[in-house]
Amino acid sequence: MADRFDVIVVGAGSAGCALAARLSEDSRRRVLLIEAGGNDRDPAIHIPAGIVRLIGNPKVDWAHLAQPDASRDGKVDLWPAGKVLGGSSSINGMLFVRGARADFDGWAAAGNRGWGFADLLPYFRRMENSPVGGQWRGGLGPLDVGPLRTTHPLGEAFVAAAVEAGLPANPDYNGETQEGASAPQVTQRNGARMSAARAYLGPAARRTNLAIVTNAEVQRVVIKDGRATGVVYRRGNTETLAEAGEIILSAGALATPKLLMLSGIGPGGELAQHGIPVLHDAPGVGANLGEHPNANLSWDVGQHTYNMDARGPRMALALARWVINRRGPATSPYPHAVAFFRSSPDVPTPDIQLMFGPFAFAFSPDGVVPYRKPAVTVVAALNYPRARGRLTLRSADPRDRPVIDHQLLGDPHDIERLTSACRFVRTIMAQPPISSALTGERLPGLPCESDADWAAHLRATTFLGYHPVGTCAMGPEGVVDDKLRVRGVAGLRVADASIIPAPISGNTNAAAIMIGEKAADLVAAGS
Fold first, then answer.
1. In a domain, 72, yes or no
2. Residue 133 and residue 2 in one domain
3. Is residue 53 part of a domain?
4. pTM of the model
5. Interhelix angle 412-429/451-461, nearest 10 degrees
6. Which of 74, 320, 392, 527 sits a CA distance of 20 to 30 A from 461?
7. Would residue 467 show up in a list of annotated catalytic residues for this protein?
8. Is 66 inside a domain boundary?
9. Which of the residues 280, 292, 336, 467 is marked catalytic?
10. Which residues pair with 169 in a beta bridge?
11. How many CB atoms lie within 10 A of CB 446?
């Protein structure tokens, strides 16, 4: 006998936690939330600086490996995705960025009714507990959003230098306008990470109408006569059928398209090659994979930076300070300053995001590796890249990882925009508020002036923003409609970052949570 629910949510990530918690507010509605990962009790999740122990850690991160990237000399990227309650909100950098007003107005203009900025602002406000106040911000939501509890003086110096270089000072990039240089806003409470699980499932977990199953991997969606009726999930060696009137996939931009394809929804030719019966031929499933390319520039400095606290006695001292009063370097995510600007006067909205950190790092197949000398880093992210990739199945076996094929610098336009951004970063770092602290340029370091020089640097050092979107895109011709319903199958929706049509201006965690909030209202309204 199958377990029976009103709604099944697959994936307890940023969107899934919000969605399941909101749906279960109605005590008459039985909700099942299924998560492939385990609980979120690992202390590294809650200590913000613990991110260096999370990315690439198979206990909490799917740690997908992509195909070699021909646009970057065959580099094989790690594509993190949270495998734990809270999903990627439990392993991310905690920077809270809604996105630009123009992003969401663009969704509406493309035919997605109810997805313009004015439509979505109530959800952004409903989800957050921010001290900023005013008409743009929320103060009563479950997700704490606020300033860093411990700041590094070079963060303020970077903002001052950016203003001297010509950017406006912006007190709130999540407010009326995004453009300018700002202090960061992070998802923390009293110096500890505020994941979607902590924000939403903490208050909801005791509800008798909400069942949360962890360490359970969904194998497929059960579809009968064109309607989704349930899911089959595996826990250990046991397979279980759970049924519901509504199935919602919130497994993320990498796992949701995989689940759809395993269930017979996807590009018909590819499914047939793997022996999967085609229930609905949907070429857009797994296509349109967008990511933010991040350029990396860093400088040696003559004062203490936080990467010096990442080992030995200093690390022990930083952890002790965090345990005692939730302050100090261990409260630090990556950015201590941010800036949004236009790479060219003809760009209508900021297409570059800068993130300044009082430490330097490198990436290895095992994750993030701190630099051993005092240094600072500026990451320049391209908000609207043209390059797109694709996610496909490796086989019909749910245990096999998907094939991720993405050329991060595959479009020359993206290299041009990043080159412009990097040159402006050098202009900022030459301004007196911060230049006096620098002792030398570490990256690029070597002479880097011509377009060809910058292109070579970018191919060697550009890395992922860890913001995959678009693989189940919403739109009039998309995988899902503007009610998040999967076309061609009744009773099935998608609610996560995979529905975002194209990369947005900023980190995607806030938008993913907003999608979960809105999806709950769509389900409750029966639309």
1. no
2. yes
3. yes
4. 0.97
5. 100
6. 392
7. yes
8. no
9. 467
10. 181
11. 9
